[in-house]
Please model this.
Amino acid sequence: MGIAGQLAIEDRSQSIPATMLAAVYRGVNEVRLETVPVPQIGAGELLLRVHTCGVCGTDLKKIASGSHSAPRIFGHETSGVVAAIGAGVKNFEPGDRIVVFHHIPCRQCYYCRYKTFAQCPTYKKVGCTAGFEPSGGGFAEYARVMDWIVEQGTVKIPAGVSFEQACFVEPVNTCMKGIEALRLEPGETVLTIGQGPIGIILSVLARKAGATVITSDLYPERLRIAKSLGFEHIIDASQSDAVRAVRERTEGRGADAVILAVGSNALIRPAMDAARPGGRVLLFAQTQRGEVVVDPAAICVDEKALVGSYSASVDLQEESVRFVMNREMDLERLISHRFPLQEGPRALELAANPQPSSMKVVIQPGTAWNRQTREGSQQ
Ligand SMILES: [Zn+2]
Ligand SMILES: [Zn+2]
Model:
């Protein structure tokens, strides 16, 4: 790093402390609040002061299954303020409000050429960290954003858009990618099983693609939110058989496409049954490896297609940013619980054991800002 660059950082980073709070994953179902060093940044990198970070189902599965080594600091739906910049960073300066993607593909490898970006080896490298093995770092006060993310995966938040709204850019992108995989045509009927925050976003995007959307969930609270967003065809799966209800509404055929936005593998069979012959079923939440029984004739004879979608697409980055920043959907409404970072472990606990009334859970180191700094007043 050049001397000028270092001086600039020192000048601007006077208020950056040496240590910070973080929710540290220490092993299966063990996340502790700890004091850790504030990450150092190098040339081309940013230090992000985290305001809001959404809790994602994939974080919860990693914590519950021990699929990843410990220690780590998770959290990848992160919005906040640039606290410091490394030498050579031109497009951002301290004080900018930003949201970051934590994965960006190389765009050159075999997988990228076929647009299966989530399978790209570069994409699998995580470009944001709050310390330890890079894992997102949003569940901490500060996160280091690495150079390739600064160049291609960092987005400024326009004035008037909140940190809460902005932290949905990545989840919205993943939902757009899932909808694209279904190749919906206007007039088709889609059943979305599960009306948690992701199921609702998927339903809104399916409707935007011209489909008639039927939503189902076990919790009346969630169906009420779906209804308030204008979804008229609602199935209370605790009361009625969703497969039969969908067939009744489609002249006995079944839905043209079914979106499974619930992690339970037991719902794969009913999702297949709810699709019409020749229809498509999207597995959106089946992120754990395992085995399930499927009827092979449903795929061969009935020509139903089972498709999957995971993580974000760089090709949909601009579209997802536009959708969120233009407030095409009021995403803040999907947040049911906001926790300060001090209560991070409790936030993860609640998100892992959702209540009927819980939707999106966010951890907000930024709740402490108002009394500490000027940035808080910018929101
Ligand atoms: Zn996520
Ligand atoms: Zn690649």
